[in-house]
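Entry 12.
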Amino acid sequence: MENPTTQSRLLGEPHDVRRALQLLGELLTDSAATTESPESFIWRALGAPPTSLACESINTTAWAGVSLSAALNDLILKFEPTLGPAVSDQAPTWTQVRIDDETLSLPAATAAHFPAGTVAEIPVVIQIERNEYGDYDWDLRIFADPTRRADAREVLDELSRTAIEEKNFYRGRVVAVDLGLTLQWKIIDRPALRRDDLIIKPDVWSELDLNISALTDRAEVMRERGFSTRRGVLLAGPPGVGKSAIARVIAGELVGDFTVIIVDARAGASALRAVYRETERFGPTLVVLEDVDLYLGDRRRGDGGSALADFLAVMDGAEEYEEVLTIASTNDPAALDAAAVRSARFDSIITLGYPDQADRARILRRYLAGLDVDLDIEAIAAMLPDNVSGADLREIVRRALLAHGTDLTTERIRQVIKEGRWQPEPLQGSYL
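Predicted 3D structure (tokens):
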């Protein structure tokens, strides 16, 4: 986006022509004045063209901009300044942002003239503009007398402080991120899963806790010794063995003290840097990257792409993000580039296998708990093949309940297993 000086060069010289044409249009249509230009609004408010004024500015990431906009909105509601355009040929515009059950109406492309004695001792014009392209950033600018630049900086600093401390809507929450025309951030409920709900080997939890400690009880030790608190954990294994469930458990345990960001594959493929930039405002953050093999390719096969470059940058590259724990999952770790899985990107790779016979029995007991039936769980678990996942066991129980209700017997469950419909098979036949 062009800076104010560039915009003034492009639009400032022909300002008189623009204004004359505007007046002529009013005379021809016999209507009230249409929207003036951002430059003329500033000139009228502060008595000087933008090119001769001090301009303090900040370029923000997507939801940092929402927080800044909310902080500016509070000032607008409090002081009721004169409003004008921030984008040429557009009236001041507002955007709707939904937070939980509340919809906020916030300035999206608006300028506000605050007289002396309101937000500062001197008059200022504050512009905010939402850029829906690129990294979906927002720009905020404050114009003031050039001899009072420090006053403009104080206003900007106070807006930034308010945005971080009072209007940080997502800090300490669970947020799901996907990608439409822009990044879509949605606050979701805290995951209800607990460790006791999963049948997972104890060493898996121990390894996760070791990595979490870098951001919690061992964080100060790490900093004192000059080590980063950033950690990355890759959960690898076939579908249905509990990778997503483990991530949800950790999210439920950390949320509150941590902000949790769950990133789907499309957002991970196209906007990973934008997501990680947000973590700078959220304090300790857990980033959950699901199915990274869908977008972190292997350069040896020619499918690394920009997503791989972005991942390497945010995990251990030019962009350093402290206090960020990344938990990623993949069904196929061999599909990932070697650089993506080295230490300092993924510090720990946890491979989850299929449950053994004893664990299959434990999982079946969990799904069948509460039924007043006498079942030989060990016999049922023993007849199952070794490549049965926890998700498969859940489907076996579901199919048995659908077929027989709660009137289950060992033989009926064994029959469901023998039929084999609980494991999807490729469809065959002719199709129109």
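Annotation: The chain has a mean pLDDT of 86. The CA atoms of residues 227 and 404 lie 58 Å apart.
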